[in-house]
């Protein structure tokens, strides 16, 4: 019986008659289960959060950047230091964090702003930043 693996899209031969196999291997089955758990916990997080992301006043207010970075790091499952640095770079270059979110997280094709790019590299190099993040 020919099946297509739901995880890796490979076709595979299943020897079990009756119930249709969904994954080609244990590895794929485990990976699929892990992904499912991740999606579930992301949903739970969003429901409980303060939701800076949905509030324009908060997202544009530097005082909430720490919260914004936390939410972004949860939502996109990315390194928080990198997000913090990028948001800080936006502020220093006179842009709202939306620039970073749209260009680097949503990847909506927002044009590169060299000022933010430069600011980000400066922050990375500066020892002040290393002190701040420990
Ligand atoms: Zn597979």
Q: Describe the main β-sheet briefly.
A: 2 strands, antiparallel
Give the terminus-to-terminus CA distance: 56 Å
Radius of gyration: 21 Å
Strand order of the largest sheet: 1-2
- List each distinct ligand once: zinc ion
Count of discrete structural domains: 2
Helix/strand/pairing class, anyone?
Answer: mainly alpha
Strand content: under 5%
Q: Kindly state the mean pLDDT as a whole number?
A: 84
Task: Please estimate the helix content.
Answer: 55-70%
Order of helices and strands: EEHHHHHHH
Shape: elongated
SS summary, helix count: 7
Oligomer: single chain
Which regions contain 5 or more consecutive residues with pLDDT less than 50? none
Number of strands: 2
Polypeptide structure, described:
- The structure is a single chain.
- The protein is mainly alpha-helical.
- The chain has 2 domains: 46 residues, no CATH class; 84 residues, no CATH class.
- Helix content is 59%, strand content 4%.
- Helix 3 packs across helix 4 and helix 4 packs across helix 6.
- The longest helix is centred in the N-terminal third of the chain and has 23 residues.
- The protein binds zinc ion.
- Zinc ion binds next to loops.
- The site of zinc ion has 8 residues, from loops.
